[in-house]
Structures are given as structure tokens and as C-alpha cells.
Amino acid sequence: MPEEKPRLVPRLRLKTGDTIAFGPGKARLLELIQQHHSISAAARALKMSYRRAWLLVDTMNTCFHQPLVLTATGGTQGGGAELSAEGLKVLTLYRQYEKAVGERPELAALAALLSETPAP
Q1: What beta strand segments (E) does 1-120 contain?
Q2: What is the spatial distance between Cα 56 and Cα 49, in angstroms, rounded to a whole number?
Q3: What is the mean pLDDT of residues 44-52?
Q4: Longest C-alpha distance within the chain, in Å?
Q5: In the prediction, which pLDDT does 79 show?
């Protein structure tokens, strides 16, 4: 089996003060909320508790000018969640930025300096 060349995977985080407003985990949570229209279903897909997912959504909704996730309470039709226009915009811009950083020549230059033998 051929050895895989070292590569760098940037993990971008947006912070406001000491709070992580947005990062790779929150981006994935938003993608799953968009897919499932449910915070609880997104949490299950990520193998995390509903409480943890809700706290992440609450942090995102608090850190941005507009909420990123809109929720509807349960009832006969059940509850649900969807991304707001702001949520879609933040997710799109974050993924574009992530892609742009990954394509930077500096990242390839840094990866070339990595040892091919991973640390134990």
C-alpha cells in the first residue's frame, strides 16, 4: 500500500471574544439541520445529544446579528427547524472560505515540510 503524502487540513473557527461563533462542527450541524429539517435528527446523525446540539444552535443564533436557525415548536404536526437566509449565507461563505484557504500555495508549502512519518 503506497504511503499517503502529508497534508494539512485547516480547521477554521470564527470567534467573538472567547466564544467560538462558528467552525467545522457547527457548519456540519447546520448542513444536517438543512437536510433533516430537525435539530434532534441532526443531533442523532452526529451522535450527539439534543441538548448539546441545541446549545450549539443557541450559541450561533446569539453570536450573529440574525439567527442562523429558525425553529417551530412541536404540536400535532411536530416541530422543526430550518436555516434562515442568514444561516444559509454564513454556511455558504464559510465553506467558500474553507475551500479558498485549502487551495492556498502556502498550505501546500507547509505540507511539503511535514515529515512523512507520522508522530506516534
Answers
A1: 14-16, 19-22, 69-72, 80-83
A2: 11
A3: 97
A4: 59
A5: 73
Residues 29, 49: Cα–Cα separation, whole Å? 12
The mean predicted confidence, pLDDT, of the chain is 90
For residue 51 the three cell numbers come to 441538548
Which positions ≥6 away from 15 have C-beta within 8 Å? Answer: 21
Q: Evaluate whether 27 touches 94 at the Cβ level (below 8 Å).
A: yes
Global pTM value: 0.85
| Cell 454556511, located at residue | 91
Cell 479558498 -> residue: 100
| 64/22 Cα distance (integer angstroms) | 10
Phi then psi dihedrals of residue 38, to 5 deg: -160, 135
Q: What sign results for the dihedral spanned by CA atoms 64, 69, 74, 75? A: positive
List of domains in the chain: 14-107 (1.10.10.10)
Which residue carries 487540513 as its cell?
9
Give the rounded percent of residues in the chain with a pLDDT score beyond 70.
Answer: 88
